[in-house]
Amino acid sequence: MTSGRLVPYACSGGDHTASLTKRARPQDIPVRAFPTLGRQTAILGFGVHVPERVLGNAELERMVDTSDEWIVERTGIRERHLAEPGTASFELAVRAGREALDAAGVEPEAIDLVMVASSSPDAPFPPMACRVQECLGLVNAWAFDVLAACTGLLYELAIADAMIASGRARTALVIGAEVLSRILDWSDRSTCVLLGDAAGALVVGPARRGAGIRSWCLGADGRQWDLLVYGDHAHKGAYAVRDPDPHFKMNGRETYLFAVDNFARQALAVTEAAGLTVADVDLFVPHQANRRIIESAARRAGIAMDRVVINIDRYGNTSTATIPLALRDAAAEGRLHPGDRVLLASFGAGLTWAACLLDWE
Ligand code: ACO
């Protein structure tokens, strides 16, 4: 294990300002990685669903005080997709999940575990994973949701990896599904230009060719929970107030600084834990939150841009769906081959983060 200096944690309780005064410098946040043990697991197939409706920057220019030039220069985003009003996140999850099962050649009955991660879940319960289980006929699966913001998909993959490695499950379906458009304040230019709707799914099982996931970097820093929140009153919980403002809010600048440092350090830590260096990485598939974050982190970690997947221009930040979407596009562009060493990395609200290094099946 590698670790950084541990700054003492103090509970900020309901005091929204307390944690702000204790903000840790990105480089002081511990980042720890470890090699995998037990049965080797691999991604056996993936699927995505992207709603048809496209919202381009030109249309946003007519909605808020922004410009295509500002959005492209600061974020790399040119367009994003929106689900039809009234669409549930689980409906997108079902479509992506079905495509992933088909791609992997896995029957619904073979799924032992299904998870859905989301930053825009339909409700506290029932779990969206149970709705997916019903719709896809995953009769032998146990099912639950994961709330870890954009990191949710990789946290799910880590859970699936551990369950399969230890023999508690053989095959898992891991999904990220988002209708983020319904939690955006469409009059707030600082957030509404960033996000998009989509779902992505991975089928995970024992590696068929002895390849698979070699190492993990998993972490969280709860001192920084207030950087990205849902609603003005998130410090009390969304149900504690009578009239919450149910919208996505963000301290963009602090999140940006954290993300660049965290991505780079995760890349170094997780490759080292696998007994490799970043020079061995064939493809870096990062969470797509901002083109500049990805470019800066790749530069800092020493990964050339021709080994980095960026598709944020077409979808914006789709939170838990970005990594399956990026894998799908990389495969379609002929950039993903059996035996390739692939680095997946994400960060999100919480703060949370996760990365893994795997040999592609
Ligand atoms: N159009 C035009 N101007 C804008 C816009 C916009 N859409 N948004 C902000 N501005 C203005 C600001 O008002 C500010 O103006 P001022 O200088 O007159 O005050 C100026 O642009 C600069 O604002 P900054 O916030 O400093 O811009 P920055 O270069 O930091 O870019 C951004 C902002 C894109 C949000 C960046 O900080 C970022 O990407 N942060 C990380 C976001 C992220 O990773 N989020 C992940 C989580 S998403 C989730 O959890 C679901």
Concise description?
This protein has 361 residues and is an alpha+beta fold. It has two domains: 166 residues, Peroxisomal Thiolase, Chain A, domain 1, CATH 3.40.47; 166 residues, Thiolase/Chalcone synthase (Peroxisomal Thiolase, Chain A, domain 1, 3-Layer(aba) Sandwich).
Distance between the termini: 26 Å
Tally of structural domains = 2
N-to-C SSE series?
Answer: EEEHHEHEHEHEHEEEEHEHHHEE
SSE-based structural type: alpha+beta
- Bound heterogens, unique: acetyl coenzyme *A
Low-confidence stretches: 1-6, 14-21
- CATH architecture assignment of the largest domain: 3-Layer(aba) Sandwich
CATH class division of the largest domain: Alpha Beta
CATH superfamily of the largest domain: Thiolase/Chalcone synthase
Biggest β-sheet: strands ordered side by side in the sheet: 1-9-14-13-12
- Strand content of the residues, in percent? 15-25%
Largest sheet report: 5 strands, mixed
Large-scale geometry:
globular
CATH domain fold name of the largest domain: Peroxisomal Thiolase, Chain A, domain 1
Count every helix, treating DSSP H or I runs of 4 or more residues as helices: 10
**What is the C-alpha radius of gyration, as a whole number of Å?**
19 Å
